Amino acid sequence: MVSIQNQIVLVTGASSGIGEACAQVFAQAGANLILSARRLDRLEKLAQSIADQHHVQVYPLQLDVCDRTQVETVLSGLPEPWSNVDILINNAGLSRGLDKLYEGEIQDWEEMIDTNVKGLLYVTRSIVPGMVRRGQGHIINIASVAGHQAYPGGGVYCATKAAVKTLSSGLKMDLLGTPIRVSNVDPGLVETEFSQVRFHGDTERARTVYEGLTPLTPGDIAEVVLFCATRPPHVSISDVLILATDQATATMVNRRS
User: Active-site residues: which are they?
Assistant: First the structure.
């Protein structure tokens, strides 16, 4: 395990779920954190808690990755030394609805594409040139099992996560010849706010997604992300698919009555 102590790690979508868990495990490993999300109040509380607990520096950054101008302005305006990002964790993402494609809400499609694909591109475009100039960096994209296999009602979400997987592969090819690594992490069922967001705040419907099985936790995914980031420089973990033991594919799960 290679030390990442005092490295600067930027986590998008850091206010909850996998992003928050990544913040915790990377802070425990001694990294300094830029935590970005739209919900500044939650970010500030998390930043203070992590700084107190792990004695690292934390920079809370209110950011909507869907807003290209905001992404470019905010990230180009990071002060020294925060502008020298060593590890970028593109975690911000969401799913909206579970409608048939021909009945889907176009606003839901727009939000998924803007966040999961365009937002990832905006942040990557802003951060990676600095990595190339410094000859150091690692991009870790959080995709999904949905990027491997489509499922009914999830066509657009699955397409966005397949795009993340493809963008990771393309970026790795574009960076060949540099020491910069690209990793793609594909979680299966993880119990977070994901389903509440998908069902527009319907907590009862969201709860049924995880009933009768043992899903992954955000911490499970964060530990894998940390593993990718702490390999020796000559080792690049390109793609990791992580499923719960109760899950075999995007749609096949074992539910105990």
Answer: 157
